[in-house]
Amino acid sequence: MSLGHRDVAAPEKRRVAGRALRSRPATRRAHRLRTTAWLYLLPGFAFYGAFSLWPLIETFQYSFYKWDGITAAKWVGLKNYIKIFTSEDALSTFAHAFTFILFYAAIPVVVGLVIVGVMTRVRIRLLGLLRTVLFIPQILAMVVVAVAWRWIYAESGPINAALEAIGLDSWTRAWLGDFKTALPAVGLIGTWVMYGLCMVLFIGGSQKIPRDLYEAAKLDGAGPFQEFMAVTLPGLRGEISVALILTVTAALRNFDIVWNTTSGGPGNATLIPSYLIFEGAFVTRQVGYAAAASVVLTTLILLLTGGIQALLRQRK
Questions:
Q1: Other Cβ atoms closer than 10 A to 204
Q2: Beta-ladder partners of 65
Q3: Could you read off the pLDDT of 44-60 as tens digits, one per residue?
Q4: How far is Cα 143 from Cα 187, in angstroms, rounded to an integer?
Q5: What is the dihedral of CA 288, 293, 299, 305, to 10 degrees?
Q6: SS3 of 277, please?
Q7: pLDDT, tens digit, for every residue of 199-246?
Q8: How far is CA 227 from the centre of its chain?
Q9: Which residues are paired to 66 by β-bridges?
Q10: Alpha carbons 254 and 301: distance in angstroms, whole number
């Protein structure tokens, strides 16, 4: 019996061994392909590590020191972070950053969605030209944008001239020099820059929504608003997530527009975290404090963008 059993099992063992031998070249080939792929990626990883990850690690390290960038650094532990969270000026900069989120992210996204909602019911000619025109602010250098809007907001600029022309002289003011209007005035520049980006994203996303869904909604008696809420908005969830991440990040790391319009003034009315970091590192020479502010700002950006992704992913 045992001999017969060996005779029956031997062919099966040979077939298994043959398959194993044939699979070895394929396994080696797959291993070589993976190795080659990693070799192609290695320069990119090296560049990213040298110019992004390593500076980030060093910034985190510096945040625990008192250092002027020249003399020997002194370990101070969490004192730089405590200073940030107990300083009224530092906290106000983060409050201004959240205000910018309203102008840079919320308003552009809402405007983009409204216009796309209208476009789904009304056919617009020269749509390609419209996209190009709306995207121009994204192409322009922010320095150019800031200088142009500084002229628009000037006391002798177009806004005040238009108000005077219609008899509203009492409304004229130095928009960037007034404590009450400086922050929203700078924020509206961000709205003008970002709404075109949101609209282009939403226009592209709306074109992939099947038209059958709109026809079905109309047959069910849905009006324009119900159609937008039931078809357009769910179909644009991915584009909304991308738009919010890009605009929120731009709002929190904004620097060039503030620098070229108000320089954080009047007073500290438009002071933002990135400007606080710049002053700490290059003006007052408090490198450790600036590094701590950078870590806090980076953490805030990661938390907000991660929260946006998680929220929209859960609603899919």
A1: 13
A2: 75
A3: 899 999 998 999 999 99
A4: 15
A5: -150
A6: helix
A7: 889 988 888 888 888 888 888 888 888 888 888 888 899 999 999 999
A8: 29
A9: 74
A10: 12
